[in-house]
Amino acid sequence: MPRPCLRFLGALSGMACTLLLATTATAEPMYPRPDPDPFYAAPADLAAHRPGDVLDVRVLPPLAVFPGATIRLVEFRSADSRGAPIAATTTIATPAGHQPGAPLLSYQHFINSLGTSCAVSHRLYDADLNLSTIMPALSMLLQRGWSVALPDHLGPQFALGAGRLGGQITLDGVRAVKQLPELAVADSPAVLAGYSGGGLATAWAAALQPSYAPELRLAGAAIGGAPMNLVSMARGLGHNPHPAFGLAMAAAIGLEREYPDRVPISSNLNQRGLAFRDAIANSCTNDILAIGAGGSAHEFATSASVFDQPDAWAVVAENSVELYGGVPEVPIFEWHSPTDPLIPVDAINNTNRRWCASGVRLQTLEVPAFEHLSAAVIGAPEMLLWLEGRVRGEPAPAAC
Fold this sequence. Notes:
Blueprint: H1 3-8, H2 14-22, E1 54-60, E2 70-79, E3 85-94, E4 104-108, H3 120-123, H4 135-143, E5 147-151, H5 163-179, E6 190-195, H6 197-212, E7 218-224, H7 230-237, H8 245-258, H9 271-280, H10 285-292, H11 297-300, H12 310-318, E8 332-336, H13 345-357, E9 362-366, H14 372-391
Parallel strand pairs: 4-5, 4-6, 6-7, 7-8, 8-9
Antiparallel strand pairs: 1-2, 2-3, 3-5
Helix pairs in contact: 5-6, 8-10
């Protein structure tokens, strides 16, 4: 029995594992199962709408983590990486006794998933432990009168790794909620924040805002633990077994979904690779990590040539903030652990230096954390203080 099959299909019997290898799907890109809730489906007249236009609104059940808040799911028009129209969603919590014009935060949570069931708008009601790292901070802001939006920034195809897409969806989500009179945030000072994969979407939103949404006035953006260079991150994984290999494979699948003609991952997978892809194609973060732990790219590729495809690497570069020429026009707070083992810290430092040299008002914070996720929690209090200063209109500090 092949070892990778046993590893990621350990819950199945040996016979079932062998059967899956024998009947694996074709080498065409594998997209997620459509969300069974028709609310998420794109309307027939999608192309008639502009980016940020509201398509639909639904009031959701109350959330214990946001006591007293009204929860709404907003569907809006956004654009994919080619500029084609897509439908996207954001969940917004409005505090009890909300005052018109009170601050608005769009928080991009790290989704790091491939399945539609992994949308933040779903996981909020599933007691997702990954969300618990930020919920106390968001709840505190709601108690202070802020509105908090949580976009599903991977888009309808759950294109993990497509950072530019996440930035566009984030900006269009802010545009959308500002259009809804019942939310009373049209004149609110708006800020962005996110950590890890959510930090990637936040960084892209801040960098794209001058060209993609020039009319959208933002007071600042806080970026934590973001993979600023996907090229160096991918090459840093190497070809040896890695505990986070599942996320790397998931990002490759996500980029293939967004760029099927440029990132031909599936057609370069062997039978074990296709079975691995199928096993994670509709999975959420923790399952992807568990299924892929200790995997390596060479186990699943048909040949070494898959690692030398210029157009695919160009897509990875196009989704790397460090390599993007544009810079934010809003103040930036950036925090990370200098010993983070999962992301290339040099890419963060290089991006910070370039933004500083371009005149961005940037404050940085290195937190004493030895791994990736704890840095999110350790840096959160300083991040919240910084956000509060921006919505009060205080001059943004600059560390460069």
